[in-house]
Amino acid sequence: MPTDMPPPTVPRHSILEDAQGLVVGTLLVALSVQILKSAGLVTGQIAGLSLVASYVSGFGFGPIFFALNLPFYWLALRRMGLAFTVKTFSAVALLSLFTELLPHVLTLGRVQPLAGSMLAGVAAGAGLLALFRHGASLGGVGIMALWLQDSRGIRAGWVQLGFDAVVFALAFAAIPPLTVLCSLAGAAVLNVIIATNHRRDRYIAR
């Protein structure tokens, strides 16, 4: 067999494919936020901090989430490049918008906390995978997690799980302990989904 064969061409997503990936991914995450808020739950990462802050302050999730992500764009631009930064900024802006609009068109009734937490984890995991595979994230810890995975080989899911531990420690001061424990189950589901499915050796289209 010849050994000087050129490497296979890596397919790239078109602009339209990237656009639909960002919309679908952020809609799925917005749905997960709606489920969490309906059950009074939290999650990890910057989204978790934003939920805790919204419960304590009374401000909406969207504006808080957008503001908390602003300091991380410098790292994104410096470490991940302009295209990643622009896509991530767009994803954060879309999620901030969708989480403000979704309650006006979707009202959830009673949500059992543990079931709601795990369903939210599945929805958010699927949404984040869509964003990662189209070269974006939801900012914050996601930026650091993807950079560490690409530069150090540390799985993004495990990085996010460590940050989540800090978020949930803060959550115990704001919401009932049983609610925090139910929320933790959903965050674990989310991070396992990311850790087991976000593999560049299995998905090479960009």
From TrEMBL:
Keywords: Cell membrane, Membrane, Transmembrane, Transmembrane helix. It is found in: Cell membrane. The keyword Transmembrane helix applies. The keyword Iron does not apply. GO terms for cellular component: plasma membrane. It is a multi-pass membrane protein. The chain crosses the membrane at residues 21-40, 46-68, 80-99, 111-132, 178-196. This is Putative 5xTM membrane YitT family protein. The lineage of its organism: Bacteria, Pseudomonadati, Pseudomonadota, Alphaproteobacteria, Rhodobacterales.
